[in-house]
């Protein structure tokens, strides 16, 4: 409440803000966005001012009188002026509300930050009002004129605030890709950065999301915005043209990138065209277009049998191996003679308990990525996924060579297939080279089952103090 002991006119100079630039206040000469404000106007002109009592009316219940002005929307009030036509009142108070008459305000005078009004959201909200009320302590005087200077509250994003349809409530003519009654939000699709009030130093314009022309909708993520160094937080929604990803920069599953078209083209992604029988599914590598083929099938779209395989009549196994392993041609082995004496058929089921676990030198999970012939050995490129029991020469996770004797593979002592994952169990006692990871006819290579992981992890935790791992003697 403000008290004025005397005076012919009352003037409240709140803060006048910046003067708009004539040509285009919201953009500079280089068409870069900048801070802008609507023109200052006289808000009381043409509006109804309600008086609690008049000279022609009966005396009121209370000795004080009030003048009330409803502004119709949120305005930034810059001054209030009164001109009297009677003896001056001893004192008066001026109130304002930001919520259409439900709350009063306290004065701004003396606040240290008043000189930096454009940078203070608190002060900008303080001078914002939807209604004004002037209260006089005594009713025996006359008021000739009430003037209220102000402008529409547009948060620095509009230079015009024209009246609505049929002379209705003024509306901000929002710029900087903002929207809302007070330019207090970003337009749809302009959510790559969070909305902010404009300041003389930074217009804080709303920025469009980068969806490569494949979407017209996006949302804002503060987490991504912070992770990007406060540069970008938009996430595209409903990507079209078979695209996907935060910026619609990838192809959807089942589609691959067509590099003959730019990323903004609606033809940038085309179907994988994987063979319905030769491929494991409709998905392919989005860059190369390579489909995932079934065993014995090859080709970009998995449309032919690989070398050494011939077409079958089965849709589940379209290509079957037709040749005899080369090793059998030289040692004259066959399933009924040399190969049978060389090894027994591999076990399909293994009863693994802690005692049997401790008897093994190593237990690991590996995926076979590739294979090539090296003398009397087959060298597999294996990706070690987990090590559940370690040998004396440590086995590291990641890619490393896995060696298998040629005859063990030819006689089917081990069933190994590139692309598959296996549980590999073995000992190092008969290994010709302890530095190498070797599996042979005495080892086990079982197709991996996810159900084994929990049990093997429990063995790994229990082995401390149970498994007696011999430690090599130091050299003399």
Descriptive notes:
This protein has 7 helices and 26 strands. The protein is mostly beta strands and 476 residues long. Strands 1, 2, 3, 4, 5, 6 and 7 form a 7-stranded antiparallel sheet that branches. Strands 24-23-22-25-26 form a 5-stranded antiparallel sheet. A two-stranded antiparallel ribbon has the order 8-9. Strand 12 and strand 13 form a beta hairpin.
Structural class: mainly beta
N-end to C-end Cα span = 97 Å
- Give the strand content: 25-35%
Shape: elongated
Helix content: under 10%
> pLDDT below 50 for ≥5 consecutive residues: which ranges?
1-21, 101-109, 323-334, 470-476
**Rg, Å, rounded:** 41 Å
**What profile does the largest beta sheet have?**
7 strands, antiparallel
Average pLDDT over all residues: 80
User: Would you count the extended β strands for me?
Assistant: 26
Report the total helices. Answer: 7
Signal peptide: 1-17
InterPro entries: Laminin/Netrin_ECM, Laminin_N, LE_dom, LMN_ATRN_NET-like_EGF, Netrin_domain, Netrin_module_non-TIMP, TIMP-like_OB-fold
GO cellular component, one term: extracellular region
Protein name: Netrin 5
